[in-house]
């Protein structure tokens, strides 16, 4: 197999019927993969459902594409998607966890039921799909099939934060932890697992209601960024040519970012608690940590620059 072709590979792309997921499904398919498009056609907040959305995406791809139009967070969904891939195409090599919903509210107005729903779709569903898929992948690989790859779509909101996105940011930050552990658990099998924080024009970008100048600029720029750049990075990360695993990337037009990950930035060795030298303790923390503190700029402010298109 050449380094970039995906001939004969089998992919599951959740949320693959619209936006970034559709661009990913198209690119994987164009490179030779068979694709399960798992999408129930819901609104951005997860309400409603429309099976015609996945059906239309599959019809546009033609051969080697099958729709699965249930809710990816429903009980048994992960196993069902993997079973469909195996039944229709004989294996599962690639998983792209891209489906997500948003239910934003400033923290003091947050509703537990919204937090639960976002966590179910954006974090629990990826776990369940990866758990089912990796079990199948290990068996296939032991039987001689080449390993594939897993990509989890995260967000700069989960890496950096943004006002009102407690549920979404918590889910996406959780997905980073999941990505790291899957990369570790599947390293011996040769299956790579990475996270991608995308920036692209989709219905979600269109729905941004700017609350300040930074958001006005962010929205206008984002609406100019094609999702194909995200798809290109994902296709590379799941191809035989990729050796990266457990990493967090970003992609915004022609810019591809590698994000750093939290590691100890500074250390203080304090006196023992019984000495009660709390003033010295506070000043040791302030002087050692002061230069390394992370500011509270939002992700929109952090990416307040012109994208390369
Ligand atoms: N658009 C951006 O710039 C941007 C920025 C940061 C992160 N992301 C992430 O990229 C991914 C794709 O975002 P998008 O902007 O293309 O979103 P989108 O809303 O346009 O597409 C998401 C798709 O997922 C499907 N979906 C949602 N819940 C589902 C469920 N429970 N079961 C099955 N399908 C479901 C929807 O029907 C929809 O087709 C998401 O993970 C999102 O968090 C996007």
Attribute tags:
13% strand, binds nicotinamide-adenine-dinucleotide, alpha/beta, 309 residues, 8-stranded mixed sheet, Rossmann fold
Q: If you had to describe this structure to a student in words, what would you say it looks like?
A:
The protein has helices at residues 19-30, 51-61, 77-89, 112-142, 156-159, 166-185, 203-206, 213-222, 228-237, 278-289, 299-302, and strands at 10-14, 34-38, 65-68, 94-97, 149-153, 192-199, 248-252, 255-258. The chain is an alpha/beta fold. The chain has one domain (10-261): NAD(P)-binding Rossmann-like Domain (Rossmann fold), CATH 3.40.50. It has an eight-stranded mixed β-sheet, with helices on both faces. β2, α2 (51-61) and β3 (65-68) form a beta-alpha-beta unit. The chain is globular. The model has no long low-confidence stretch (mean pLDDT 96). Bound molecules: nicotinamide-adenine-dinucleotide. The site of nicotinamide-adenine-dinucleotide has 32 residues, from α1, β6 and α7.
SSE topology sketch:
Layout: E1 10-14, H1 19-30, E2 34-38, H2 51-61, E3 65-68, H3 77-89, E4 94-97, H4 112-142, E5 149-153, H5 156-159, H6 166-185, E6 192-199, H7 203-206, H8 213-222, H9 228-237, E7 248-252, E8 255-258, H10 278-289, H11 299-302
Parallel strand pairs: 1-2, 1-4, 2-3, 4-5, 5-6, 6-7
Antiparallel strand pairs: 7-8
Helix pairs in contact: 1-9, 3-4, 4-6
Bound molecules: nicotinamide-adenine-dinucleotide.
What does this entry show, briefly?
With 309 residues, the protein is α/β, with parallel strands linked by helices. The chain is 42% helix and 13% strand.
């Amino acid at each position: 197999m050449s380094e970039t072709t995906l001939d004969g590979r089998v992919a599951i792309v959740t949320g693959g019927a619209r936006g970034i997921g559709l661009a990913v499904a198209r690119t994987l398919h164009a490179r030779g993969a068979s694709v399960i498009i798992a999408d129930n056609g819901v609104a951005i907040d997860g309400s409603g459902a429309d099976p015609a959305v996945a059906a239309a995406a599959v019809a546009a791809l033609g051969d080697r594409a099958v729709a699965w139009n249930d809710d990816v967070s429903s009980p048994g969904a992960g196993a069902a998607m993997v079973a469909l891939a195996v039944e229709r195409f004989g294996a599962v090599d690639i998983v792209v966890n891209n489906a997500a919903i948003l239910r934003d509210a400033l923290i003091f107005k947050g509703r537990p039921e919204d937090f639960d729903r976002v966590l179910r779709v954006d974090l629990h569903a990826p776990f369940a799909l990866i758990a089912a898929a990796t079990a199948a992948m290990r068996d296939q690989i032991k039987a001689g099939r080449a390993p594939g790859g897993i990509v989890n779509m995260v967000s700069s909101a989960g890496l950096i934060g943004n006002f009102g996105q407690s549920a979404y940011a918590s889910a996406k930050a959780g997905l980073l932890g999941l990505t790291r552990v899957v990369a570790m658990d599947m390293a011996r099998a040769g299956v790579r697992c990475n996270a991608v924080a995308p920036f692209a024009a989709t219905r979600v970008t269109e729905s941004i209601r700017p609350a300040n100048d930074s958001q006005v600029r962010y929205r206008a720029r984002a609406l100019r960024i094609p999702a194909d750049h995200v798809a290109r990075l994902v296709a590379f990360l799941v191809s035989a040519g990729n050796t990266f695993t457990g990493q967090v990337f970003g992609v915004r037009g022609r810019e591809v970012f590698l994000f750093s990950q939290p590691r100890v930035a500074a250390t203080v060795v304090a006196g023992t608690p019984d000495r009660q030298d709390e003033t010295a303790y506070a000043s040791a923390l302030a002087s050692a940590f002061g230069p390394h503190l992370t500011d509270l700029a939002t992700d929109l402010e952090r990416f307040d620059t012109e994208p390369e298109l």
